[in-house]
Amino acid sequence: MKTARPAHLTDTQLIDALNRCARDERGATASLVAHLAEMDVRELHLGLGFSSLYAYCLQVLRLSESATCKRIDVARAARRHPAILDRLADGSLSLTTARLIAPHLTENNHEELIAAAAGLGTRAVEQLVARRFPRPDVPTLIRKLPVPAAQVRLLAEAPQDEVPAPEALTAPNASTGGRGPVTTPLSTAPAASTTPSSRPAHPTFTALSADRYQVRFTASASTCRKLRLARDLLRHAVPSGDLSEIVDRALTALIDDIARKKCAAATKVSRHERSLAADSRRVPAEIRREVWKRDEGMCAFVGRGGRRCRSRAFLEFHHVMPYAVGGGAGVTNIQLRCRAHNAYEAKLFYGPRRLSGPDSTGRAAGRA
Ligand SMILES: [Zn+2]
To answer: What is the pLDDT of residues 280-291, one digit of tens each?
Structure first.
């Protein structure tokens, strides 16, 4: 769609048009949030082959990660407190301020709290929330600056039982003239987390070049000890002690191990498992191995319109024809599903009530 350039407008017309655009955008945002809330309730994204509403927003609605998180959080709050939608539309709440108050809204306070936040800017709403819902002080945090992987060093000579400080894993930083890592006190506490499991909690990967990434995370003392030990044991193969190389080898071994367990890549199938296979809902090792390979270790749910989910997280083995109605554990009846789609199909088949008890209606089986 082509966007008309307003170069031909008079000044007055331009101001009027700009105000109208802002008003339209607020209305569209409120409407988008309302529709997202309904979509979330109906779980339509699951039927279309997406494992989460988050994935749908990113891939179909083309929203950015941060825009998606904000809108989904506000949509879920708006389901409980629809007045938020009117405030978004009239501009007295922005998505940011609505999201700030959302975790604190209750049946008792929502009218008053929404009214108190209305018309305020982000900083003012942060202060309002901090005043009314105080949180304990947070400790000063130390933030590591990006350093080339080759420069990262473990605190090599520290005693094994010593807890390494975070800066012990960083190299002297060039920007400080090699005098040590930079410490950055953070003045505000992190926002209350409303992050569902389907979206990344924190951005931990930063692209540095075509094939290099900065990966940042906080590790326990135990993890640091394991890293030190692995580095020492791998001295012959990785003389430089390059942490990225050691972590890469560890992850390769871990993924192999998980794949072996998930797809039951054991060389022998136990006699016990063989005896279970005939009349059990348990999927035998050899079937799991074949299914995992066929489905390429990804959710095989295909939504309306033909989109396959392909999620690799929370995978489960799914009976296409449920075990309860005679579906066997053969390779043609078993497929990989992410947890969301396994639950979705169970709900379609049994109906929501059957998930917590017997379904007396019998309609679900017909739908399936
Ligand atoms: Zn899925």
So the answer is: 678 898 899 899
